[in-house]
Amino acid sequence: MRHLISVDDLEDEFITQIYDHADYFKVARKDRGQDWFSCTQALRNQILITDFFEPSTRTRLSFEAAMSYLGGNVIGTENAADFSSIKKGESIYDNFKVISGYGDIIVGRFRQEGEARLAADASEIPLINGGDGKGEHPTQALIDGFIIDRTFPSYDGLTVTFIGDNEHSRTVKSLFKMLSRHNVEMNFLNSPTWKADPTWRLHHGWKGEGTWIRPDTFRGTQEVERTIRNSHVVYMTRNQVERHQNMLEDVAPRFVLDQHYVDMLPDTAIILHPLPRNEELPAAIDADPRARYFEQAHNGLFIRMALLEQLQNG
Ligand code: NCD
Description:
By secondary structure, the protein is of the alpha/beta class. It has helices spanning 12-31, 34-38, 58-69, 80-83, 92-99, 115-122, 138-151, 170-179, 199-203, 222-229, 247-251, 259-262, 293-313; strands at residues 47-52, 73-77, 105-110, 127-132, 159-164, 185-190, 212-213, 233-236, 270-272.
């Protein structure tokens, strides 16, 4: 694989390797023994370039930490929209053509769907899509897939419920694509303003079972309660206000995964969120052992170490 733009670029065997290596890095860091210190030789003298046109905490910092732990160097900007020559009218193509001459691998984050592909076409070195508008976020899908894979013995019969702004979330789309490869039931509790019909799933190649809910008021709806009770994974997302076309979407009533609903979840279920969260996931839920989103975010370091290492040395 030269560039990682979409989950479609990830072969199953490659995903398995990434997960195994991430396990290795996770244990090595905990032990802080010889294995961990020998990591610093892996990408010595290589440079990761980060070029981010949208805000980021986890993606940029965990990639930078991953590269640093692997012994490489990092250059870049967290606010390319203001601090790069794009501000002077340079095209994405020219920008990535030029910077690809200054390092060995690039992670980019883009405001518009499709810009990651454009940047990859220009780049002379591997480019990783760190999120492009409401397009995709393949490395987040690896992080999300990893915790699901390592929590449950099998994908067979697993029920995953996506709750929130599914329409505008690139992490939902990427994870949905990844899980579509397995015999997983997927339910969608969508933002009440979503006009799209259930065929959205078919557009992305989904042939499996699932419930599609766009209730006007969430609480008390039997279908919602039944869906939550049957979920092994609840995948929450915040309202993606920066991608909304009209104010109605911002003020529409939203689902809050409060204690009332958490109490309905099976004991073995897990609650995930790519973060950042807003009011859809109250901090009071953090203490519940099923809340795994901070672990999920911390796994990002190991997944990104594994990815950088595999892309460059694999
Ligand atoms: C997500 C993103 O950027 O799409 N954040 C992340 O990388 N963990 C989710 C979001 O912004 O809501």
